[in-house]
Amino acid sequence: MEDSVTVERLLFDASAIVALLFAAVMVLHRHPVKSVLALVVSFFSLAICYVLLTAPFIAAIQVIVYAGAILVLFLFVLMLLNIPAEEHRRDTRPIQRFLSGAGILVFGAMLVALLRDAGVPERFTGAAEQAPAKAGEVLPLARLLFSEYLLPFEALSVLLLAALVGAFVLARREPRGAGS
Amino acid sequence: MTAVDWIVLVLRVVLPVLILPALVVPLTWLERRGAAFIQDRPGPNRVGPFGLAQAIADTVKMFTKEAVVPGSADRFLFLLAPGIAMFAALSTFAIVPYSSTIEIAGRQVPLIGADIPIGILYLFAITSLSVYAIVLAGWSANNKFSFMGGIRSSAQIISYELAMTTAAAGVILAASSFRLTDVVALQQGTWLGVIPRWNVLPQFLGFVVFFVSAFAETNRLPFDLPEAEAELVAGYHTEYSAMRFGAFQMAEYVNVVVASALTTTLYFGGWSLPGYHPHGVVGAVLSLAIFSAKTFFFICVFIWVRWTLPRFRYDQLMRLGWKALLPLALLNLLWIAALVAWRIL
Predict the structure, then answer these.
(1) Rounded to whole angstroms, how far apart are CA atoms B183 and B128?
(2) How far away is chain A from the Cα of B45, in angstroms, using its nearest Cα?
């Protein structure tokens, strides 16, 4: 496989690396606010990856929904509760360390197995011009969403609604001695 | 790149990026003189003719003052926040078509930063990021007043973004495209020979919701609770001085310009006028003039409203956003969907 390295390829690699790096920062940083900010950078880099994979619509939704709404909400709650940085505590359960190591290994093996057969997208190999990869654009996506995937799409919205109602029930306190 | 490419680059990218932040100078003058006029006092009238040089003097002052970073602040985030504010404000204008198409050396060049297929979604993505500037500024300064401003702002922007996006969805539906060039194309011509085909007529409700939300999104009175000076000193930018404060100021004015330009484009036909067909360079200049005039009108409305209406209380702001504007925006969307379905629009 001979790739001629394009600017897009370089940009894609750079943003993929940034996304991974900041995802790691998100996990490792001890301050919750900084963790959320690292996740914002990670999501934004991921959006750049989507753009380069000719899926600008997905990229915009990624930024609007995840970086722009959900993480702002996270930040809002974290700031409201004013959670300080976590302290470094001694590990009381060594089994956790072992299990997390094993988890990383299994996940890594799965990733390698999955990616071994997947080639580089045509867009990055220089032979991109004749392959109009339009799956990520608005019109084809909307067609798929409202025909083939209509039922899963609607079921997903019901699932989200259920989560919403559940959160409401959990958070609601029963009024004691109503009126007084 | 050929010479034509360079001309196109300058026209579409360099000029807007240079002109937008420079607009803050005449706009602060306009705002202060307008405020003075409304409040029946002279306003800044000493520096230069009509006090015109006052804004330039203020700019020089901002650049030469000492920029203080509070000792207890989170230095990195404190310095980053004004940068995000400027970045978000300047990059939103990229998808607004500010003039008609011109022909340069046989090439049709639409005068817009980038005519991308996701158009207005890009704009909403960037504005949804701009809230980080305010939240980070409020949080990193380690000051109670700043912090309150940041918290208020995040709640406010999330609430009003929803109404604003839903209102704009009506326009997207009518144009069946996210591109603002298509939105302008839709509004060419007239109904019954006299009424311009502007979106404001079929979607008046959407326009009202959009415009009111724009005030909340730009943190302007009557929704300037993040920086309510009577209770929060200056809100999220209390601790900022010199040009870092200037960056927030500049971002606010650029946001006002973009909001006005967007209102013009979405609801008032953009650069077009009924019965007007632009030709050549003169046509492009005329289109730009029409666009600027319409945008300027809305900027004046922004200033006029700021000095006429009192500030909302916080609970009123939230109630208006969720219980009035959002249902109205949904109603507008339903109405437009019906019009489109019955092929009236």
Answers:
(1) 22
(2) 42
